[in-house]
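Okay, any thoughts on this one?
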Amino acid sequence: MPFEEEGQTAQPPMPDNHDGGESPAPHSSIKPSSQERTQTIGARLKGSPFFRTRRRTVVTILLSIPLLLCAGYWLLGMIAFADAAKLIELKGLVQSRKNQESRWSSATPNQLLRRNEWVRTGESSGACLLFFDVSTVDLDENTEISIEQVAKRRGGGSVDIVLKTWIGKTFIRAVRFVDPSSTLRVETPTASTVVRGARFTVQVEEDGTTQIDLEEGQATVQVGDEAVSLTMGERMKLQPSGQYERERIFEPNAQLVIDQVTAAWTTPDDTFHLELSENEVNQFLAAMGQQAGFFLQDTQVWFLDDEARIATILTRPTRLDLSAAVSFEVIENQIKPQIHSIAAGVALPVPGSLLDPAVDLVLDQLDEYLAQAYDLIEFEQVQIKDGYLIVTGRKRTDAPVE
């Protein structure tokens, strides 16, 4: 159930207070336990392999800034979504029909598709379904799907999308909604795959044999009465008889990001230029989430035009689902995230007083990360473009280059 309080709005982040000005008022007497938690977890984080060198600390700083800001803001109020998908990026032969009709008609760009409507592609053809302006389902050639449900509940807080792939191949990029009960489900003649947020491929053969490749996130595949959990890098192949096989096709690899940061640091001049793809960032975050004592789990980032959509689970001191839309500005060589929307949900209701320690923990850790980042880099620009996070700047003359 989402955490909501009517009549409130998101507040801007507190200033860093690194200019020697007056310090903020101390916490009240009910706060010391949250500060102690911050110190304990901060010590654990510094002992993690991701914080043992300055270079790895920079990696974590760059990726953690938007994530850690999530706990400082709350989008309060109702969100309304349209209950339809938009058909975009048509290529070749693309047709649609309503459930009660037998005749197929040529689809048109930006056509809206609702419950009980079908779409199919021909040879050397393709199309994309856009849901709520963020999640997409790309149809390969010779693919046929139907929209079983596009629904909203509780004033738009909870969203359910159900698709069925009858034959062919679909590429799903499901951006996670904050409400824990929101899901996207892809059914086939053999199984049903449920995700909250993930990137995965579903391929269905003529006999109903289904293959699911999970590239990012987590998924639950329902096979008869059995629910099978998949994690990033796993493949599942299901037969029409109900038998299935699982295999790992790759391990989340933090080294991909570390290598690129190393290359950015070892350039012969003082420029710092880093480009990271969405998949590389998510592999790094998945590997980081496996570290003992780390307080973020199932963290995912989606790069859209000029902004990042970020979702994570804060595990302590209170379990929270956090989600935000963020873009970036660089002012006086410091990164200033611009929060367009942010929300928080919890798996179970919790007293509002328990949320304060969680916010304190995250914001205190953010202050520490920012201080380290500005000691190393004079930032010039942070962009999100064509599916990449692009960070440019100059190495400080007093910063070591390994």
